[in-house]
Structures are given as structure tokens and as C-alpha cells.
Design a protein that fits this description.
Layout (H helix, E strand, L loop, with lengths): L13 H20 L3 E2 L5 E3 L1 H4 L4 H4 L4 E3 L5 E4 L4 H12 L6 E10 L11 E10 L4 H18 L4 E6 H10 L4 H12 L3 H7 L4 H5 L3 E2 L3 H8 L4 H18 L5 E3 L12 E6 L8 E7 L3 H4 L7 E7 H10 L11 E5 L5 H14 L5 E3 L6 H10 L4 E5 L1 H5 L2 E6 L4 E6 L3 H4 L2
Parallel strand pairs: 1-5, 7-9, 13-14, 13-15
Antiparallel strand pairs: 2-4, 3-4, 5-6, 6-12, 7-10, 8-9, 10-11, 11-12, 15-16, 16-17
Helix pairs in contact: 1-5, 1-13, 5-11, 6-11, 10-11
Bound molecules: histidyl-adenosine monophosphate (HAM).
Length: about 425
């Protein structure tokens, strides 16, 4: 019997996993270097957690099911609402600001295509308890630093949902209508937006894009009050991004499909990925935690789509270090098998970050060297009876195809 996979989900073989783990560890290492601590949330939740405020876009694409007690559950489509729930119920007494991060699979019932899956992975951060431009700037910088460490070329766009909403407020539009317009913007349907909001400063604002100075243009368009204050804050955020050397583009026509955003929003797009080229999205959401029963707490965050990052690294021909062994330990003859095993064990203790593999199929030296070359091993360690008498082995550099006798106690220092 042959079983097929459901649409939109994938298996990852060991080759692909090498690349995926590399990207994951670069992201987690970068999050950690900014002080973010990892959390884990459940795979399924009560449906209301996401239907409450995550936006029509997501709610339409949920995997919903009843459990045996008749409760409505769903697979998580994203983790921000979950982290907000966790914060409200369990973490609210922790010292602020709270820097949290996660890597998890997410589930959305979407039409599968390249870069869009029904199960996909997100690596994200949530910075909770800080409302100022410094917090906004920190998250954009962190996203930019992740892209830099991955070696990926991407365009970061910045906009401000708070300003858009304030202008819609001034027009007397309620929340539902505002959400509708923001979704239209997110989909790039400017025509319908223009028809819905004729003669508002918003229409002119949507055309404002460019460097940080375009915020000055925006400042001239909006009336005094909340919108101006938000733009002043945005200017401060962009100054901080300039100071950190982050390249970005202001684009007030950019909106995001999730309803919980209240302030600065941003995304990152890469060239050459086709329609699904957004590798990262995020922004400020100051009302979500209050909605889940916690005290009103400001928060900002973002998530990378890991699958799209990997696709774009492949399309930009970036090498993703995989599982190639640093050293492959081979016995020159059967009688030294025990010693070879012990040498591998000693190396793993001395160089815990290195990948040390041992030949275990009884292959002859030539065949074993051939395997080491195919596996991309940097070094072969050839254990032979004669060298062992001198407490040594032959260390073969697989790239240079040169070998030299090295004392067993010195092997680890050669594994660069
Ligand atoms: P999002 O824009 O819905 O935001 O998703 C973030 C990223 O996940 C997207 O930029 C994209 O790379 C990836 N992604 C989304 N859907 C798919 C899919 N079907 N297949 C492959 N990749 C996908 C959020 O989820 C927010 N929770 C981000 C956030 C965190 N905002 C504040 N904090």
C-alpha cells in the first residue's frame, strides 16, 4: 500500500534538514545575542484565541476541529496570540521588558504553492512591556541582523498602522470598516481603497515612500494630534535604524493582514522568490495582551518564515552548512577497531562542536576514503597499527588531499 502526504505538508530528508537546522541556529543565535529567551507554546488552542483578533485573513485559514468533549479547537496559525495569552496568564509578573522568542511549525489552510504551505515554520520574537521607539527599532534591527548573518539580501519596508487607523478614525470609520480597508491595502487593492476613502489625507499618505525623510512629508499631510505624535515617534525609530546601519524603505501603503497591529509595522522581501517573497513580517500590537485579560501592556515583534528563508538562500546560491563531518575516523586494519572507536570518543569530548563520524561498515581503506569524500568530510583520521605504537594517527586533509602523522593528543587542535 502506498500512502501519500496530505497537500501542503512536506517531509525533510537529512540533506534538507542540514540547511534548515543551519538557518534555525543562526536565527536562534541572533535572537539570543539580543537577549531573547526561548518559549514554547502548544500546537492547538481554543479557536477563540485566534478568531478574536488575528484578523479575517487568518481566521478563514484555520484548521478547526472538535475534540471529544465537543470543544472547538484549532491548530495554531501563528504564535503572537499564544505568547500574549501566556504572558497574560503566567508571565505578567516577570521583569519588563520581557524578550521572548520561538521556533515552531504553524498551520494555515491555504492553497499550496511555492513558498506557501499548510504546515510551515516560523522563527519569531516578542518584546513585551516597552512602548517607545527604542523597542520598535530593536526589533527591526534584530530582523536586519538575522538577514545579515544569514547572508541574505532583502528589502525591509516600514509603515505605521496606527497613523492609518487614526486617519480612518478621523473620517468616522469604525473598527470593522478600518480592518476591511487595511486588508485591502495588504492585498494591494488601492483602487477599492481610493473609492472607499475619497478626499482624505490618507490617500496622499499612501503615496508617500522613500527614505526616512519621507516621514517629514507625511508630517505635513496629517492634522495635529495623535497621528502627528505617532509620526514623530516613527522618525525617532528610523533615526535609531540609521544609527544601526539598517537599510529600509518607508512605504505608507504597506499594511499587514493581522488585525492586532496598532503601531509601526514592517516586512522584509527578497528578490527572485515569485509571489511569496515576504520572508518576515511584524509590528507593534499594544492592545492584544489587554484583550486576553492581562493588564494593558505594549508589545512588538516579528516572525520569519523559515521555509521562505531557505528557498531564498537557495535562489541566492548561499551555502547552508549541512551535516558534513569535520572528521571521519577510519581503521586501516580490523585489529585497531577498538582504538579507533576510543579516539572518536576522545575527540567528541575535546571538540564537542565538531561532527565526528566513525566508519562502522567494515569498509576497506580506499572505499572508506571515498565515502569520506562523498560525505564532504574535512578530515579523515586513519588509525593504523604502526602509528598507534607512537600514539599517533594519519590525519588526511580531504580538500588538499595531503596527509601527515599527528599525535592523538593533538588531533583536536588540527580540526579547524
Ligand atoms: P505573518 O506575516 O502572518 O505574521 O507571518 C510571518 C511570516 O511567516 C511571513 O512573512 C511568511 O514568511 C511566513 N508565512 C506565513 N504564511 C506562510 C505559509 N502559508 N507558508 C510559508 N510561510 C508562511 C505573523 O504570523 C505574526 N505573528 C508576526 C508577528 C510576531 N507580529 C508580531 N509578532
Amino acid at each position: 500500500m502506498v500512502f501519500e502526504r496530505p497537500r501542503g505538508v512536506r517531509d525533510f530528508g537529512p540533506g534538507e534538514m542540514g540547511g534548515r537546522l543551519h538557518v534555525e541556529s543562526v536565527l536562534l543565535g541572533t535572537f539570543r545575542s539580543f537577549g531573547y529567551r526561548r518559549v514554547q507554546t502548544p500546537t492547538f488552542e481554543f479557536l477563540e484565541l485566534f478568531s478574536a483578533k488575528s484578523g479575517a485573513d487568518i481566521s478563514e485559514h484555520l484548521y478547526v476541529f472538535d475534540d471529544k468533549g465537543g470543544r472547538k479547537l484549532c491548530l495554531r496559525p501563528e504564535a503572537t496570540a499564544q505568547v500574549a495569552r501566556m504572558y497574560s496568564s503566567e508571565l505578567r509578573n516577570l521583569q519588563k521588558p520581557l524578550r521572548l522568542c520561538y521556533v515552531s511549525p504553524m498551520f494555515r489552510y491555504e492553497e499550496p504553492q511555492k513558498g506557501r504551505y499548510r504546515e510551515f515554520w516560523q522563527a519569531g520574537v516578542e518584546l513585551i512591556g516597552a512602548s517607545g521607539p527604542e523597542a520598535d527599532a530593536e526589533t527591526v534591527c534584530l530582523a536586519g541582523e538575522c538577514l545579515r548573518r544569514l547572508g541574505l539580501k532583502a528589502r525591509i519596508r516600514v509603515s505605521h498602522i496606527g497613523v492609518l487607523r487614526e486617519l480612518l478614525n478621523l473620517q468616522g470609520l469604525g473598527e470593522t470598516e478600518q480592518n476591511r480597508i487595511i486588508h485591502l491595502l495588504d492585498k494591494g487593492d488601492y483602487k477599492t481603497v481610493q473609492e472607499s476613502i475619497r478626499d482624505s489625507p490618507l490617500i496622499r499618505l499612501l503615496d508617500v515612500r522613500g527614505s526616512g525623510e519621507s516621514v517629514d512629508v507625511a508630517l505635513k499631510l496629517v492634522p495635529d494630534g495623535a497621528a502627528k505624535r505617532m509620526l514623530e515617534d516613527m522618525k525617532r525609530t528610523l533615526n535609531l535604524l540609521d544609527a544601526a546601519g539598517i537599510t529600509y524603505e518607508v512605504d505608507f501603503s504597506m499594511a499587514r493582514g493581522l488585525d492586532y497591529y496598532t503601531g509601526l509595522v514592517f516586512d522584509a522581501k527578497v528578490e527572485g522568490l515569485g509571489a511569496q517573497n515576504q520572508v518576515c513580517g511584524g509590528g507593534r500590537y499594544d492592545n492584544l495582551i489587554g484583550l486576553f485579560g492581562g493588564p494593558q501592556t505594549p508589545a512588538v515583534g516579528f516572525a520569519f518564515g523559515l521555509d521562505r528563508l531557505i528557498d531564498s538562500m537557495e535562489s541566492q546560491s548561499i551555502n547552508m552548512a549541512g551535516y558534513a563531518p569535520d572528521a571521519y575516523v577510519i581503521c586501516a586494519s580490523e585489529d585497531v577497531r577498538t582504538q579507533a572507536f576510543a579516539i572518536a570518543d576522545k575527540l567528541r569530548k575535546e571538540a564537542p562542536a565538531k561532527i565526528i563520524e566513525v566508519e562502522i561498515l567494515g569498509r576497506k581503506l580506499n572505499k572508506a576514503l571515498q565515502y569520506a569524500a562523498e560525505a564532504g568530510a574535512k578530515y579523515a583520521i586513519i588509525v593504523g597499527a604502526n602509528e598507534l605504537k607512537e600514539e599517533s594517527v594519519m590525519l588526511k586533509d580531504m580538500n588538499l588531499q595531503k596527509q601527515a602523522k599527528v599525535r592523538i593528543s593533538d588531533i583536536a587542535s588540527h580540526l579547524t
